[in-house]
Design goal:
The structure is a homodimer. Chain A is α/β, with parallel strands linked by helices. Chain A has 2 domains: about 210 residues, Rossmann fold (3-Layer(aba) Sandwich); about 90 residues, Rossmann fold (3-Layer(aba) Sandwich), CATH 3.40.50.1100. Helices cover about 45% and strands about 15% of the residues of chain A. Chain A has 12 helices and 10 strands. In chain A, strands 1-2-10-7-8-9 form a 6-stranded mixed sheet, with helices on both faces. Chain A has a 4-stranded parallel sheet with strand order 5-4-3-6, with helices on both faces. In chain A, β7, α7 and β8 form a beta-alpha-beta unit. In chain A, α2 crosses α3 and α7 packs across α9. Chain A is globular. The relative contact order of chain A is 0.16. Chains A and B meet through α10 and α12 of A and α10 and α12 of B.
Chain lengths: ~325, ~325
Amino acid sequence: MHSDLDLERVRSAAQRIAPHVLRTPVLRHAPSAATQLLLKAESLQPTGSFKLRGASNRVLTLPPGVAGVVAHSSGNHGQALARAAKLLGIPAVVVMPADAPALKRSRAQADGAEVVVVGSDSQQRERVAAEIAAERGLFPVPPFDDLEVAAGQGTAALELLEESGPLDRFYAPVSGGGLMAGCCVVLRELSPSCEIVGVEPEDANDTQLSLAAGERRTVPPPRSIADGLRVRTPGRLTWPVLKQHLSRVELVSDAELEAAVLFALRELRLVLEPSGAASLAVALREGRGRCGVLLSGGNIEPALLARIVAAGPR
Amino acid sequence: MHSDLDLERVRSAAQRIAPHVLRTPVLRHAPSAATQLLLKAESLQPTGSFKLRGASNRVLTLPPGVAGVVAHSSGNHGQALARAAKLLGIPAVVVMPADAPALKRSRAQADGAEVVVVGSDSQQRERVAAEIAAERGLFPVPPFDDLEVAAGQGTAALELLEESGPLDRFYAPVSGGGLMAGCCVVLRELSPSCEIVGVEPEDANDTQLSLAAGERRTVPPPRSIADGLRVRTPGRLTWPVLKQHLSRVELVSDAELEAAVLFALRELRLVLEPSGAASLAVALREGRGRCGVLLSGGNIEPALLARIVAAGPR
């Protein structure tokens, strides 16, 4: 399947989803004379993350005869799928853990999705989602391990390069790898000499370990505050793409993530969630030259935002 | 001079400043089925406000032989002029009050401006700025009462309409009136039936009083938290434009401004300053139909942001 994720697939996705997603702005910040950061603010998408790109592309490429879509997600993927299904007028079911914030549940419901609450065990949620898919003829939309989902996410890099031109370096977070895989195939074609840097939390470094081992590795359940990056192993379909194209993976601590969230509030006037600020944290630490930085999402818990803002210097 | 501020002048400004400003995104939010808010996020401009548009246009239309620019401003205009002068490679002097936040001073200096600190009396600052202009051959750039400045600000409405099409209603803050005057001449030509609603703080309602009186009125020094909207009387050049085109002015309280700042953080993932959230506050209160909403800036004091976030529901 690997060779199927390519620039043409991403270009097709871009054309397909254009009416449904925001062409997010590329903000510029020069931390030094030698460095220009070109920041793609995906936090400004409706539902607050790049996930709307992949979800929309998947909903727009469903096989005929499908009655709707289903996903298990407590986070940005579930929100995005609910919105994409609403935009296209098809039913959606989102399976969420019992401990998911009430706000996320009510937002998915406000977009017309049916929310099914199932314990806090992710395997149980996966099973329930599969059962619902089978019983009701719904299409299960995975958060990353799907070529159309990954191609949709890659449209963010396509838009970035259209505005930035060739880059020296590109930073994006890596969780299951859908976003990064989609971006990799775009960057390798349109900015071939660009160094592609994946960013993971210190305790969710499955892709870094996998690259070192040459095969997929799994880490214990991460506790990083970057709740969107706690996937424990690279995706089956995304891994070969990452293995081929990723230059390296850099790790970030919780303290660096919080500092990057605060930096974004003050200097960029953007609300980012910790996962969404991971690439920024590394770009601020080491970036040189023309650096593309994918700011992936802005759905931060209000209590965490309050803590970060209160702790920052006045 | 009134007839000189027209759509053609704004179109010329748009072409002139395009390489130097951000084409800010138009975010969409539907608070009800009957209402679509189309939110022009000028808070994302470099230096954090629409002011870069007018400052850039003024710097790009200086008379020949000018050695540089000077402004008296403790706020967004000074930051914008410093950046515009840097972008165009000319010297800038910004006269600031002694009580201006250190951050604003250091930002103007980081953009290469010379900062002159003069007491906290605004008339004294004005006099010092005029003296510096005369002595050094610098061009004094006023914050609003200048046709090229106002034309530059109007480019925000031009971009908004290019994406939104005709609007039922348009909301923007009114301080000296440069932004609103520039927007008015665009809206009247390109969306003629659009209701144009100015927004002022309750105690900075000089434009509302002036409209009622049919001539310029002055209010006592306002104390609103919207520090960008504390101008006490409409501009000499902007007033005739506002008088001709403004449909009405609505007022906002400090509590409404704080609620709108919190709403923007949570629902739009944008950091807005109180002045920048004024139009949003009124649009959320009364908006119906297709409403353009100009979010003018995002330079909120860190301590105020912390207070608003801490007070909000978790």
